[in-house]
Fold:
Amino acid sequence: MHDHRRLGREMGLFDTDPLIGAGLPYWLPDGATVRHTLEEYIRATERRAGYQHVYSPVLGKRELYEISGHWAHYSDDMFPPMDLGGEQVVLRPSLCPHHAVIFRSRSRSYRELPLRMAELGGMYRSELSGVLGGLTRVRAIQLNDAHVFCTLGQVAEEAQAALEMIRRSYAALGITSTRYRLSLPGAGGKYVAAPEKWQRSTALLTDVLDRSGLPYEAAGGEAAFYGPKIDVQVTDGAGRESTLSTVQVDFHQPEQFDLHYIGADGARHRPVMIHRSIIGSVERAVAHLIEQHGGAFPAWLAPIQLAVLPVSDTELADAAALARRCADLGLRAQVAGPDRGSLGARVRRARLIPYQAVIGAREAADGHVALRLRDGRRLAPRPVSDVLTRISALIEAHSTDLWADTAS
Structure:
């Protein structure tokens, strides 16, 4: 069992400081590299799926969240309002009200739908100190969020496409989902009182799950305050289950913000709003990846992808040249020379790095490297250009494989 808090600090990925505050971790260079790479992968995945990216402010007037329903149903998890020029503003607990406002910023036609809007944006939750821990429960969250504004007839296809995006991303990240959960309302007053909307949205998500053939379980009391959701559950090494990804159908906020589009008939129609997150919060996703892989990230995500190990000082110039070639190709390489210990010691310290390129006198003379893979395989010396081409291809494909030619 791996603890991301211990391993993340040992690897120099993130840390905390009481002067900054509980639940407010900071990212160190290697952790920032992992985060940036993950965020860019998500953005590229969304662009290919037709999403348009936006930026919206992390503050909003209290009135914004009164309209959305967050203030009435979610204020216990929000930070207190701040007085600003006679107005009250709050740190946002969610991005969806901002995206609703962006949608209504101009007239929309049915020809624009489905309109897919995405953002990797900050949000804030007033978590109690007792539940904070590492990256899994924090107060400042970077959320992979998106909202699809569509017609009723487009909901099923868009929700299904979102589930497929999640499946493909999990494959690239080496994540295994534990189960799919249909999260429904429970007893109490935390939910919007709109029985007809709940019935319609629940029926839509149930149909999506049934058509997908995915096994799922219904769970009362786990819905968002405005609607049901499909939650993709993962489990950590200690057996604790959490939600990483979600797909939600929302009839509530389009009505609250009076969203509409002009249909083919020239009349105004209300869109449906699908909330969709591939990896949820970046913090929780990275925590899960650290624990899932024990710090041995898929090669495309690893902070250092190639350790260059010259056997002696004589090969240092060749090692530096190899590192420069890697940089030109967009590969993250690091030279660990003899001043850092014996070759065996350097190999052991680089055990979490996907590739180790050993350069001795013969390899330097031939323009070759002897490649060691993180899984213990040692490949015969081969030309540097061949090694870099193969590694680059696997990384560009976001593959979890370390080497395509398993016979070598």
